[in-house]
Specification:
- The chain is built from eight helices and 20 strands.
- With 369 residues, it is of the alpha+beta class.
- It has two domains: 3-238, P-loop containing nucleotide triphosphate hydrolases (Rossmann fold), CATH 3.40.50.300; 244-365, Nucleic acid-binding proteins (OB fold (Dihydrolipoamide Acetyltransferase, E2P)).
- Strand 17 (321-328) and strand 18 form a beta hairpin.
- The structure holds adenosine-5'-diphosphate and magnesium ion (MG).
């Protein structure tokens, strides 16, 4: 979908929530675009569920506003909002069959029977469960149950589907499969999904954009790729994937170019994009580099923009990949380097001296230490 086609469907403005004296949400500002898969990602207790429940109308903001489709939601109850919540897979009613589970919300709204039957069939077809209307809920697999829970939300024709850790009760294999299914379904329906998750990998796989939350605040809102490649802080960088942090000192700033000294890597020039305008010279800072942006030069002929010597301190073998812990001179903690395993190459042994290749464009300089 082109950027110009996307309109905002939800606007969150200065949202704040107190539970007694506890400040659970501290000034949330964000817009969610129509048709996007949006995730709220953060550690347990950071306020994700509170924010989702507030959008749904189950929780009232202490201050600030929520607008959905241009309409302020103040005083609008949950069942009058164009949103619908999907709970964890076991939240379907075990004593009802699939059609009864899916039609439940329409029954409570006193929709005529014939219309319920039509809407239920439509919702079941959407989640690829067309032949399952009469099946007992307890006969379903975990993945099918998850799709029933989703159909139960979709039958209400919501503009926004809200999902609070919907896959966390599933085992890993099924969860991986459901992540892909849910993402594909969302794309084919074109309905806005907002997912709450504490699992960074899940958020990266599924989302168009992610709001990373810590302690009631959004630390960064960006696409998965931008979050991974250009984390706004060390805290975000550590939460998303693995990041090596190296000490760095700013030697000079010339226009858009910063000259840095990194004891472990040497002198380097990088572009200053995204950094605060104030750059104190000689202050010690952190530079981040991802494990796959460093390369162990197993092949002597391979050339790199920059190289440095190191010694292998340890290895973790993952089958397709090996994570090497490598000691560099001038750096107290070893760095982590990930290498894809290839047919002809055995795993390097601890104690081996290796050449490490790297490039300046893979470094992220952080504003704070
Ligand atoms: N109804 C409530 N009363 C008091 N404290 C609450 C209530 N709901 C949530 N909290 C607190 O607010 C914080 C955020 O909770 P929550 O939104 O559930 O976090 P998350 O979903 O990110 O794990 C937690 O410290 C939690 O204990
Ligand atoms: Mg929660």
């Amino acid at each position: 979908m082109g950027e110009e086609m996307q309109k905002d469907i939800i606007a969150l403005t200065d949202l704040s929530k107190f539970f007694g004296s506890y400040h659970a949400l501290r000034g949330i500002n964000a817009t969610i675009r129509e048709g996007e898969f949006f995730s709220l990602l953060g550690p347990s207790g950071c306020g994700k569920t509170t924010l989702l429940r507030m959008i749904a109308g189950f929780e009232t903001p202490t201050s600030g506003g929520i607008a959905i489709d241009g309409k302020p939601m103040e005083g609008i109850s949950a069942n009058q909002r164009p949103t619908n919540m999907v709970f964890q897979s076991y939240a379907i009613f075990p004593h009802l069959n699939v059609a009864e589970n899916v039609g439940y919300g329409l029954v409570t709204r006193k929709v005529p029977k014939a219309e319920i039957a039509t809407e239920v069939s439509r919702a079941l077809a959407m989640v690829d469960l067309a032949g399952y209307a009469d099946r007992a809920a307890h006969e379903l697999s975990g993945g099918q149950r998850q799709r029933v829970a989703l159909a139960r939300a979709l039958v209400m024709r919501p503009k926004v589907v809200l999902l609070d850790e919907p896959l966390s009760a599933l085992d890993k294999k099924l969860r991986d499969q459901m992540q892909v299914e849910l993402r594909e379904l969302q794309q084919s329906l074109g309905i806005t999904f907002i997912l709450v998750t504490h699992d960074q990998e899940e958020a990266l796989i599924m989302s168009d954009r992610i709001a990373v939350m810590f302690e009631g605040e959004i630390a960064q809102l960006a696409s998965p790729e931008d979050l991974y490649r250009r984390p706004a802080s060390k805290r975000v960088a550590s939460f998303i994937g693995v990041m090596n942090f190296l000490e760095a000192r700013i030697k000079a700033v010339k226009g858009d170019i910063i000259r840095l000294n990194i004891p472990a890597l040497g002198d380097i020039e990088i572009s200053r994009s995204g950094l605060a305008p104030e750059l104190d010279l000689d202050r010690v800072r952190s530079v981040g580099v991802r494990p796959e942006m460093l390369t162990i030069a197993f092949d002597d002929a391979e050339t790199f923009e920059q190289t440095v010597e190191g010694e292998i301190a340890g290895t973790s073998y993952y089958g397709d990949m090996t994570y090497y812990s490598v000691q560099l001179q001038g750096q107290a903690d070893p760095v982590t380097i990930s290498m894809r395993n290839t047919a002809g190459r055995s795993i390097a042994k601890p104690g081996s001296k290796v050449r490490i290749g790297w490039g300046a464009e893979s470094l992220v300089l952080f504003d704070s230490d």
